[in-house]
Design a protein that fits this description.
This protein has about 250 residues and is α+β, with helices and mostly antiparallel strands. About 20% of the residues lie in helices and about 30% in strands.
């Protein structure tokens, strides 16, 4: 795809994982069957298909081409949405080449050495303490971008960052949600242009929209390359809207 990976928004939405699984993270009595059930439940929720959309793979924008025109070595894609900002870097270099030296790897998924012809790297803060990074290959198919899945992912910790309420759940969610997406082909349709930004929706290869992964597309813009600590700061989610007053 070579543009922002909206799957990171699903990782930020830790409500996909049942609250009871926080205890499961440290409970040695939880077995393979229970963990598989969590994976299956998360997969079913994230990949619950909506309606098939006519023309879903025709007329889409090509953010990667626009980014390369600006210069992939000097520009990144920045997606601003309510679950936090995501930075996409089009590069054959590794995730570790871009992560600040102060970040510490606490978990990994897949193989960083897997050769890819034209990968993209995506970074997003999950909390003040945790940042997730992914390496993925997208292929242009018609006028959308499709991927067979996430090749490599790293969960980073900012060692001196303040703690937050979801910190105990995030490492567990990282593992469960990546397993839930394993082997699933997904396609991304982008709309917009470099001057006004891009929005994106996630589809199954048969053209059915995935509402959960498309619910907060945000706006993606091409920006000048800068240190990741500056581009992906933690931004707490907005407070919930107040409940309407009860009728008298």
């Amino acid at each position: 795809m070579r543009s922002v990976l909206p799957l990171l928004a699903a990782l930020a939405a830790v409500s996909v994982i049942p609250a009871s699984s926080a205890a499961a993270q440290s409970d040695t009595r939880v077995g393979v069957a229970e963990l598989q059930a969590l994976v299956d439940q998360s997969r079913a929720e994230m990949l619950r298909p909506g309606e098939r959309v006519a023309g879903w793979n025709r007329g889409g924008a090509n953010p990667e081409a626009d980014l390369r025109t600006r210069g992939a070595d000097t520009h990144y894609m920045l997606n601003h949405h309510t679950d936090g900002d995501t930075v996409t870097i089009v590069s054959n270099r590794s995730i570790r080449d871009f992560a600040p030296a102060s970040w510490r790897i606490v978990d990994s998924y897949g193989e960083a050495s897997t050769p890819l012809p034209g990968p993209q790297l995506d970074f997003q803060s999950m909390s003040a303490r945790y940042v997730v990074a992914m390496r993925t290959q997208y292929t242009r198919r018609g006028e959308v971008d499709c991927t067979p899945g996430i090749t490599n992912a790293l969960l980073y910790e900012r060692p001196d960052a303040p703690a937050s309420a979801d910190d105990d759940l995030i490492p567990f969610s990282f593992r469960i949600l990546l397993l839930a997406l394993e082997g699933q082909e997904l396609c991304v349709r982008s709309d917009g242009d470099a001057a006004h930004g891009y929005t994106q929706r996630i589809f199954l290869p048969d053209g059915r929209l995935l509402p959960e992964l498309s619910r907060d597309p945000g706006i993606a813009s091409i920006v000048a390359a800068a240190p990741l600590d500056r581009l992906v700061p933690w931004r707490p989610p907005p407070p919930p809207a107040p409940a309407p007053p009860a009728p008298r």
